[in-house]
Design goal:
The complex is a heterodimer of chains A (471) and B (305). Chain A is mainly alpha-helical. Chain A is 62% helix and 6% strand. In chain A, the strands form two sheets. Chain A has a four-stranded mixed sheet, with helices on both faces. In chain A, strands 3-4 form a two-stranded antiparallel ribbon. In chain A, strand 1 (52-58), helix 3 and strand 2 (78-81) form a beta-alpha-beta unit. The longest helix of chain A has 31 residues, at 316-346. Chain B is α/β, with parallel strands linked by helices and 305 residues long. Chain B folds into two domains: 2-220, Rossmann fold, CATH 3.40.50.300; 228-288. Chain B is built from ten helices and 14 strands. In chain B, helix 5 links the parallel strand 7 and strand 8 (184-189). The longest helix of chain B has 16 residues, at 165-180. Chain B is elongated. The two termini of chain B are 33 Å apart. The model of chain B has no long low-confidence stretch (mean pLDDT 90). Classes of the chains: A mainly alpha (471), B alpha/beta (305). Bound molecules: adenosine-5'-diphosphate and magnesium ion. Residues 11, 14, 16, 34, 36-42 of chain B line the site of adenosine-5'-diphosphate (ADP).
């Protein structure tokens, strides 16, 4: 007899008819995920300044300098102006001499000059001139940061050339040539390729730095792996020389250029922050939903319904497990809905990992469902259950890393956190969506979640059997 | 059909049922009359197999009723005292759930549901959420939900609590019709009027014990008097009331005295006294005693205290 499906279907129908429960489970967390994503700057697509007038004078014949201008044009924060409007409505290119009067007149607040000697031999780094009217401190800092970002992420050759020039000056022409040839030869020996071409590539300053499209925190191995990802196709002519370079170069340049930006820009934000945000709120609200639901379900108020169901050919075990199963289904749908929302809002790659995401979600939902059963078992009534679950859910979410990374917390709290189902669920989500682990690699986490579920259900069923509605 | 042998049920220190023995025959409309806390619901839940007795046995057609054997329960239907409905769902959805739990499905289930809804006048409201129903509508739905699977025995635990007179009558009519059609019913109540109207046999239960059992007439023979006499509790009757205490039981409720004479105190003697006190006969009413009196006589308690 299809007792359990009937009971589960009934629970689902009951849930769907309860608008408050539906919105608490689905709508509220999505709204919060959106709001907090906005607060944390995860949806960068529509944040930050736009249209700041920026005068650009490019006096350098270096093709890389033109690339920098193009990069600045592409930056949506800037409206790049390179021409001067004559009174007779004709235009001519801006010159450095124009800039100061224009800034004083308030026509621009920021200007960039790329001098002829943008790559200098007497210093590491680039020789750029930035003129400004720092009327607004925050704006000035933002512009500075954006300029650096444009330089760093779009024209690494310039920096490479700067390095080369500096080395040349330091070592002397002949030795420098020799040095480069030596490197090119060893690279060719080790990885194959034409030594002469490799040397030319090195001397052009293209140390493979053009692959660094994202500044990285050097200590984060995940980021480094992304830097090497095949998405940045190797430039022909630098077959292998580039391979070992980026990480080191990234280390170096992240010190040279201060860019305070941990995450990838653009659509494909596979951000651990977004994953945490979505997973964290989803788990938290799921816990509220299942514990509130289960507590109301086992409340004395429903004593009649229990009597009716149990006076039918239904065993108590069927009743309890149907409730658990319902919680798992609700949780699975809720988690996947949240991640789908995360996909739409922050570009979390849900569909690339759908199978593993479902696996983790099923086990996380099972753990949450068992928690709901436990709350229902321990609390004498729905009101007490709501108090108890609020406390426990908050503590578990905070220590389990749903709100902020665990590393922000004192060590003892991190230790507590590791005993929570929240921690292991979050860990599962991160492993799937961020670290892109395979199913087999996920098994330990799934095992732990299953263990938590089993242990909690054992206690919950033992206590539920003592409830007065069953006595 | 259902038989209880020395059934005892305790909740901790409290004995809710104390050695109850009963036999209920097929086709009976059996009443269980007792005040709140008497043990009626406990007896019902044991009969429905919701909980096991601490001592004694219950059998349904010779088969022991226990929680561990769900299959035996298909022959009975329980109308729980507290409303056993999903408020958020419609009547239709509620009946679908409960019908499916008994293995009904498809056309048969649909037919039974239509029939049930029509029988208690809920067809028009069948798609509305139960929480929008009146108390009486909920009670009617609560009742028919127990009958979809056509049980042989219906356990009705105070099915008319907090209900309007129309719904009450609808329920009575429905139950009487089903009983005539062969359904055995055990009906618990603390309203003696209900037991009087509906039940062919009545057990008077209090403190977990059966104090008397029989038809209404049989129960009334337990009383030592033929008629009970009522009169207003006014200063003019105070002296009479004081004298009557020694001749029977005198109780006062809502400004009226009720006098149940001792067997050896005939009505002629009573009226002689009223004359002596100069009280007009129209002040007095004589009536056939009710179950209330039987209950009071047997337990020393009022049904509705
Ligand atoms: N689940 C329970 N736990 C403890 N005591 C109970 C429980 N159910 C009923 N009782 C007690 O048992 C006695 C009989 O209750 P019950 O069978 O509900 O009486 P009735 O239905 O006649 O009002 C009452 O004193 C009641 O308080
Ligand atoms: Mg009761």
């Amino acid at each position: 007899m299809a007792v359990i499906p009937t009971l589960v279907r009934k629970d689902i129908a009951n849930f769907l008819r309860n608008r408050a429960a539906v919105s608490l489970t689905f709508v509220v967390p999505i709204v919060l995920i959106y709001i907090f994503g906005w607060v944390f700057g995860l949806n960068q697509k529509d944040t930050g300044p736009t249209g700041i007038r920026l005068a650009v004078v490019n006096a350098s014949p270096n093709p890389a300098a033109q690339k920098l201008v193009d990069a600045l044009r592409a930056e949506k924060a800037f409206r790049v102006v390179t021409t001067f409007d004559n009174p007779d409505r004709t235009t001519r290119p801006l010159t450095e001499a124009d800039l100061r009067p224009l800034i004083r007149d308030g026509r621009f607040r920021f200007a960039v000059v790329i001098p002829a000697d943008v790559v200098r031999t007497d210093d590491i780094g680039l020789h750029l001139q930035i003129l400004s009217d720092p009327r607004n401190d925050i704006e000035a800092q933002t512009v500075n940061g954006l300029l650096q970002k444009a330089i760093f992420s779009n024209v690494p050759e310039l920096l490479g050339q700067s390095l080369q020039a500096r080395a040349k000056q330091f070592l002397g022409d002949g030795r420098f040539n020799q040095f480069n040839r030596g490197i090119a030869n060893s690279v060719a020996t080790a990885f194959g390729g034409d030594p002469a071409q490799i040397q030319r590539t090195i001397e052009s300053g293209s140390l493979g730095l053009d692959r660094i499209t994202r500044p990285a925190k050097p200590a984060d191995p995940t980021l480094r792996r992304l830097d090497n990802a095949p998405a940045a196709a190797p430039t022909p002519g630098t077959p292998a020389a580039a391979k070992p370079v980026p990480a080191t170069a990234a280390d170096f340049f992240s010190r040279l250029v201060k860019i305070d930006q941990e995450q990838v820009v653009g659509k494909n934000v596979q951000s651990p922050a977004a994953t945490r945000l979505v997973g964290g709120w989803a788990i938290m609200f799921l816990l509220f939903a299942v514990s509130g639901g289960a507590a109301a379900f086992f409340d004395e108020e429903n004593a009649g319904v229990f009597q009716r169901i149990l006076s039918a050919p239904v065993s108590r075990a069927q009743l309890l497990w149907s409730r658990f199963l319902y919680g798992v289904l609700l949780g699975l749908v809720q988690l996947l809905t949240m991640f789908l929302a995360g996909h739409l809002m922050y570009g979390i790659d849900v569909f690339g990992h759908l199978g593993n995401l479902i696996a983790v979600s099923v086990f996380a939902a099972a753990a949450c469902s068992s928690f709901g059963m436990l709350i229902a078992a321990l609390a004498p009534n729905a009101t007490a259950a709501s108090g108890l679950s609020t406390l426990l859910v908050m503590v578990m979410s905070a220590t389990g890393g749903a709100w902020f990374p665990m590393s922000f917390m004192p060590e003892f709290m991190q230790t507590i956190g590791k005993f929570t189902l929240v921690y292991w669920s979050m860990e599962g989500f991160q492993q799937v969506l961020w670290a892109e682990r395979s199913f087999v690699e996920l098994l330990p986490i799934l095992g732990i979640l299953a263990g938590i579920t089993l242990a909690v259900m054992t206690v919950a069923i033992w206590r539920l059997n003592k409830k007065s509605i069953f006595a | 059909m259902l038989s209880l042998r020395s059934v005892t049920k305790r909740y901790g220190a409290l004995t809710a049922l104390d050695g109850v023995s009963l036999d209920i025959a097929r086709g009976e409309f059996f009443g269980l009359l007792g005040p709140n806390g008497a043990g009626k619901s406990t007896l019902m839940s044991l009969a429905a197999g919701l909980r096991p007795p601490d001592a004694g046995v219950l059998t349904l057609d010779g088969v022991a009723v226990t929680p561990s054997d769900p299959a035996t329960r298909t022959a009975l239907g329980l109308v729980p005292q507290s409303l056993a409905l999903y408020d958020e769902l419609s009547a239709l959805q509620n009946l679908q759930v409960f019908g499916r739990l008994y293995g009904l499905h498809g056309g048969v289930l649909r037919e039974r549901i239509d029939e049930a809804l029509a029988a208690v006048g809920l067809t028009d409201r069948r798609r509305d959420q139960v929480k929008t129903y009146s108390g009486g509508m909920k009670r009617r739905l609560n009742l028919v939900a127990a009958l979809l699977h056509r049980p042989k025995l219906l356990l009705c635990d105070e099915p008319t609590v907090g209900i309007d007179p129309q719904s009450r009558n609808a329920i009575f009519d429905y139950l009487e019709a089903r009983n005539r059609a062969g359904l055995t019913i055990i009906y618990s109540t603390h309203y003696m009027e209900e037991a009087t109207r509906l039940c062919s046999r009545i057990a008077i239960i209090d403190h977990g014990r059966i104090h008397a059992l029989g038809t209404l007439d049989e129960l009334l023979t337990r009383l030592p008097f033929e008629e009970e006499i009522g009169f207003p509790a006014i200063p003019a009757t105070a002296a009479l009331a004081a004298e009557l205490g020694a001749q029977g039981t005198l109780t006062t409720l809502d400004g009226r005295h009720r006098f149940e004479p001792r067997a050896d105190f005939p009505l002629s003697a009573f009226y002689a006294r009223t004359e002596a006190h100069g009280l007009a006969p129209r002040l007095f009413t004589a009536a056939r005693p009710t179950l209330e009196a039987v209950f009071l006589h047997l337990t020393g308690r009022n049904l509705r205290e």
